[in-house]
Amino acid sequence: MKWKLRLLKLALTSFLVLLQWPITVYAEQGEPQTAVFPKPDGRYQIGFHQFEITEHNKWIQVSAWYPSGSRATGERATYVIPAVAKVLQDKGFPETEYQGLPPSWSFVDLPTATGKHPVLIYNHGFSTFPRQSMTRFEYLASHGYITLALGHPEDTMAIERETGEVIVQLAENAFQAVDEADLATFIAGLKRMSTAKSQIEWQDALGVALKTQVSNTTKRFDTWYANNMILIRAFDKIQSGAISTPLQNHLDLEAIASFGHSYGGNVSVILANKNPAIKVSVNLDGALFNWTMNEKRQVPTCFFYANQGESYPGLNDSLFNDTIPVCSLTFNDANHMSFTDLTYTMADESGKVNGYPIGQEINRKLKDYFDTHLKQANRWPPEPNENIIQK
């Protein structure tokens, strides 16, 4: 029998745009898949707090997941907010992507655990939203990390403000359709980047790719970078309590990292390269472009890649140098959206959801990398296993 809904093609969107993320598959017979999200296995409970930061006439929304030593009680944060659910519904996604999801492990405004905790700045993929990776933030919070995930006004799929106002992504900020010739040129550039033997060769391939219409999403980069700087400049106010959150006096500002998925992975790596306060960065299956044309890595950086669909393991590896050694992990059987919570809802063509082990493996490796660089733990490089290919 034919599927009523199939996984959407992960071509160009594998690295830049992700308007077409894979959706849950329904079979002709039987019930839709029911999401099973992993229980965080760290020693802490998970607190959640959402707030806004205003700087002059600009504002951003920040969603915080953090460790708590208190009893888990009270209101739970939801995996998908109503405004995002409406956009998904309007775009024709199945209800299983935004309704009937299990209760989260995040409790609103729990007290933060005693002491200071490493800070992780997170940027989501293009046209998506922060909570699309909420189980990852819960996992990290349970192990003692504070994740601050940015909502980018008019770029994030939908933001519900403190006033109740809903801000959706502007049509002109979304990915625009391109012709097949431009798409083919762009993909050829990605393939050349993934096999480049030098940074010069990598830059040349990137230069060709950036001349296509496909690269129009780069026009939003400066805005996303500026939004991250608003957050960084507000750290002292969060720490002092001038911006009221449960995080007052709990940020370890000597242990800051940035990470992100897809487009957000690119932003996060460049953010670390430009800001000495950020000690380490991780790019979850994203291409690099824009400011990286003539730059090498200045801080420890790791690239996590998928090897299924239109994926290009090793895409950015030519950017490493003698000072910053290569850190490149490819996750077997992962596709681009395996680096989000969709790994727990996406079904393959047999109707089965097989992404649970992949999502957990990504979580463990991400934690080990941060532990090594922010907590001085000796957990890197990882032990070889059948689930990953590493450089």
TrEMBL record:
It holds the Pfam family PAF-AH_p_II. Residues 1-27 form the signal peptide. Gene3D superfamilies: alpha/beta hydrolase. InterPro entries: AB_hydrolase_fold. It comes from the Bacteria. Keywords: Hydrolase, Lipid degradation, Lipid metabolism, Signal. This is Platelet-activating factor acetylhydrolase. It comes from Photobacterium atrarenae. The lineage of its organism: Bacteria, Pseudomonadati, Pseudomonadota, Gammaproteobacteria, Vibrionales.
